[in-house]
From TrEMBL:
Listed NCBIfam families: yjeF_cterm
Binding site for (6S)-NADPHX: A43, G103, H157, D226
UniProt lineage: Bacteria, Bacillati, Bacillota, Clostridia, Eubacteriales
Record keywords: ATP-binding, Lyase, NAD, NADP, Nucleotide-binding
GO molecular function terms listed in the Swiss-Prot or TrEMBL record: ADP-dependent NAD(P)H-hydrate dehydratase activity; ATP binding; NAD(P)HX epimerase activity
Domain YjeF C-terminal: 8-285
Top EC class of this enzyme: lyase
Catalytic activity: (6S)-NADHX + ADP = AMP + phosphate + NADH + H(+); (6S)-NADPHX + ADP = AMP + phosphate + NADPH + H(+)
Family (UniProt): Belongs to the NnrD/CARKD family.
Subunit structure: Homotetramer.
Name this protein carries in UniProt: ADP-dependent (S)-NAD(P)H-hydrate dehydratase
């Protein structure tokens, strides 16, 4: 991976462009969000609403039955289905991108759901949080991710990144550095990797390595990653390839965080403030 660069506003403007005049909700991308659990409904709410605020035309949240009422009230623009209902698994191909992992918990049941999803769906899949943790526990060789025609996107924070490296039998991020760690994970799992943190790194074995230029310490708050997952899923659902979606998603998420910090201050801003600043970030990029 000898190609390296910065993710800048000018660069992202080549990825995220103005919608055509004849756009409608069916052409703006369908996103399926598989997220949440009892006590972690907020993860599903944040990811789903972030996808909507990032331009997805239609969002469906697949969540445990007991939190469906929460989702329907918190995100009325999204449709919902029970995660225990296999019906949504039989119609995966209607989705243009899938986000899986935020708040789902770690266990064999969750892993089997992820396994079925990855084996049944060939489109872009963004895997975050517990989705990563489940793979680290039950698929340590990451065979489910290798050789996909469209690479999955992994979005680990440093702790999750270290779990992936441990599962792969490698040393930790501190020992090898963030860029090398992200590149190694990408190469060994066959995925696009977005390693979160100050100077977020986005890399793909066949595309190079890029460092993000937006964001601030106020974004170190619970739920920020759930928002990022929704942003990337929406951009991928619009037709962009997963690598470009991850790069643009990192930049726009960071820009939304910078806008939130400008209005709220870094000390007290929340992930909801980041989510609610997404439309302003997209307006800055596309001009409308």
């Amino acid at each position: 991976m000898d190609k390296q660069g910065l993710i800048t506003l000018e660069y992202v403007k080549t990825i995220v462009r103005e919608r055509p005049r004849d756009a409608h909700k069916g052409t703006c991308g369908r996103v399926l969000v598989v997220a949440g659990s009892l006590g972690m409904a907020g993860a599903a709410v944040l990811s789903s609403e972030a996808a909507l605020k990032s331009g997805a035309g239609l969002v469906k949240a697949a969540v445990p039955d007991e939190i469906i009422p929460i989702l329907q009230i918190a995100v009325p623009q999204a449709t919902c289905c029970g995660i225990s209902d296999d019906e949504f698994l039989r119609s995966l191909e209607v989705n243009d991108a899938i986000a899986v992992g935020p708040g789902i918990g770690v266990g064999e049941k969750q892993y089997l759901l992820i396994k079925k999803l990855l084996e049944s769906y060939e489109g872009p899949v963004i895997i975050d949080a517990d989705g990563i943790n489940d793979l680290c526990r039950y698929d340590k060789d990451f065979e489910l991710l290798k050789n996909r025609k469209i690479p999955a996107v992994l979005t680990p924070h440093p702790g999750e990144g270290n779990r992936i490296l441990e599962a792969l039998g490698e040393s930790d991020i501190a020992s090898m550095g963030r860029i090398h760690a992200a590149e190694l994970i990408s190469r060994k799992t066959g995925t696009v990797v977005l390693l979160k943190g100050a100077d977020t790194v986005v890399t793909w074995e066949f595309g190079g390595t890029y460092t993000n230029t937006t964001g601030n310490p106020g974004m170190a708050t619970g739920g920020s990653g759930d928002v990022l997952t929704g942003v990337i899923a929406a951009i991928a659902a619009s037709g962009e390839d997963p690598f470009d979606a991850a790069k643009a998603g990192a930049f726009i998420h960071g820009m939304a965080g910078d806008i939130a910090a400008e209005h709220k201050g870094q000390w007290g801003m929340t992930s909801a403030d980041i989510k609610d600043s997404l439309p302003d970030a997209f307006k800055e990029i596309v001009g409308k």
